Amino acid sequence: MTYLKVFLTGGLLCVIGEALILKTKLTPARILVLYITAGVILSAAGLYGPIVRFGAAGATVPLTGFGHLLAQGTISAVQEKGLLGAFTGGMQAAAGGIAAAVFFGFLTAVCFKPRPKDT
Amino acid sequence: MQQKADHNQARERYMELVKRLTPKSKLGQGCLRAFWVGGGICMLGQAIADAGHRWLGLASADASAFASITLIFLTALLTGIGVFDKIARYAGAGTVVPITGFANAMVSPAMEFKPEGWVLGTGARLFTIAGPVLVYGISASVIVGILYYFIRW
Known about the structure:
The complex is a heterodimer. Chain A is mostly helical. In chain A, 82% of the residues lie in helices and 0% in strands. Chain B is mainly α. Chain B has a domain at 29-112. Chain B has eight helices and no strands. Chain B has helices at 2-21, 26-55, 60-80, 83-91, 93-96, 99-112, 118-125, 127-151. At the A-B interface, helix 1, helix 2, helix 4, helix 5 and helix 6 of A face helix 2, helix 3, helix 5, helix 6 and helix 8 of B.
């Protein structure tokens, strides 16, 4: 049952992205920026938490979930340390994903040769 | 005259056949593909998080980070061997919207611009798309933090 909810939530978030790409000619880069920003705002407004409780990884794996992580990390850090938390909390919460993307991205570039586009 | 009418009729039948056999719409097809691939990636993420929780004893937040890191690793590997691009071409937003899209957006240009050098090629191009994503994501979260400090909703 959990997995069905995960599938539906994740799938639906992707369908919205696909419709945006096809209907508005937004490039994937803009979709990524839009999704992370929307995630931060929705999460801060308290609207994304319920989606995560319903869809679990279906809501945390999409990039809106990354935004949710940033917003929640920031808010709990502000509760703990005051204004300083506004600057430390978000990155702290998202550190794992960012470090992994930088490191594995670099490692891949080291290990593999670029190939001619489109074969 | 008769010949021309026949020709027109054949043409009409052909156009009908074309209409019937092309997929309903690009939108419908794209959305269906994005839905099942995107949903599938999220289920994989859930399975990794559950495995981390059960066998590595990770707390729920850590299990979720573990799932993200594993998905990022898999994306980097699949991009490196050239498989990810094929999946992405089929799935559209189905691979862009999940964390896999963020990872691929870092790995792909870093690899492609390797010939331009380790610093300004790979090092800089890692952030071609990830840069803007982090700029807007982090800025939004700092604004949220400052507002929260003063308003505390």
